[in-house]
Amino acid sequence: MNLRIILSAWVALITLPLTASAQYVMMPDSTNSRIVLFDPFDGALVDGDFFALQGGTPVHAMQVGNEIWVSEQVGDRISRWDLRGVPLGQIGGQFPGGGLDNVRGMGLIRNVVYVTNSGTQNGAPGNAVVSYDLAGNYLGAFSTVGLAPSPFGVLEHQGAMLVSSSSANDDIHRFALTGEPLGTFHNSTALNFVEQMTYATNGDILAACFSSNNVARLDANSGALLSSFSASGARGVYQLGNGNIMWTNGSGAHVYDVNAGASALIYSGGGRYLDFLQVAPPICPGDANGDGVVNFADISPFIAALKAGSATNWTCDLGAGQGPYLNSDANGDGAVNFADISPFIALLKDPPPPCVSVCP
């Protein structure tokens, strides 16, 4: 029977596109110098040792395009990695104007990476926010002295940014993207030594407060305190898809159950800032069974990918779906559907060189 006819028979079974990525919450473990991954829906541990770091007391791991940048508080730098943990170099070092010393949290705003800095060694500017472009080139710095002394976190906010502080005057101060101070966002005795800030799913702002031992919920417009819960030595914070709140401290990572009003330790280690990571696996178009070559053995798995129409049960086991299903995206448009049939047939007729498709 004609191959095109066989494949076309399954077209009616196609319903939904297949997603070409995996999503996680990532955290640098500053005690064990490694990246840890969690499920963004419920906080379950996915990978307790995604890849090893170089040390330097990592504070914040943040995705920047197809890289992961990690701020190192004692290392006085930002180490750069690809999405599988291969080192790509560093930002900082000892040079006037662009050096870093005692770095903490970061923020990616309009294709600019803003980094909080406190020291003056290595040509660093002291209490300031330093900025770099996406290639790691130094763009400038602005001082936070007297406004948000000893800055610890950056969060995009209504066309500007919020900068948290470990010292008086303000717990959180607002700055323009160009560095001009725009006034106090929050300053009260309810918050003390604010580290990471993030948005709750309803738009409120969550702040991890190290010295006041709590996670605070603030109104995004006024900065007013709406509520808080106990979180000893809180450093990082992230709201999960199920509504619970993940937070970290020196003991590790915890999940606060918003209904039960209690926290549970889910990972032991040096808990630091939490951030979202989205990874797209490598693609070997046409290699639907994941064996590294495109041939007639890929026909049945390709048909199965057309039938599946859903990515809800993907895993990093090629035999279970993620690699092969993604490889079945023969035209590279991010979905497996009718449009992939002709490109798949073309690949069978003229197979590409052998390849390897694996989850990062």
For the largest sheet, list the strands in their spatial order: 3-2-1-24
Radius of gyration: 23 Å
How many DSSP H or I helices? 4
Count of DSSP strands: 24
- Report the mean per-residue pLDDT as an integer: 87
Structural class designation: mainly beta
Strand content: 35-45%
Unreliable segments of 5+ consecutive residues: 1-20, 310-322
The percent of residues in helical segments reads: under 10%
- Cα distance spanning the termini: 39 Å
SSE string, helix = H, strand = E? HEEEEEEEEEEEEEEEEEEEEEEEEHHH
Largest sheet: 4 strands, antiparallel
Give the overall shape, derived from the CA principal axes: globular
3D architecture notes:
With 360 residues, this protein is mainly beta. Helix content is 9%, strand content 39%. The chain has four helices and 24 strands. The strands form six sheets. A four-stranded antiparallel sheet has the order 3-2-1-24, with no helix packed on it. 46% of the residues are buried.
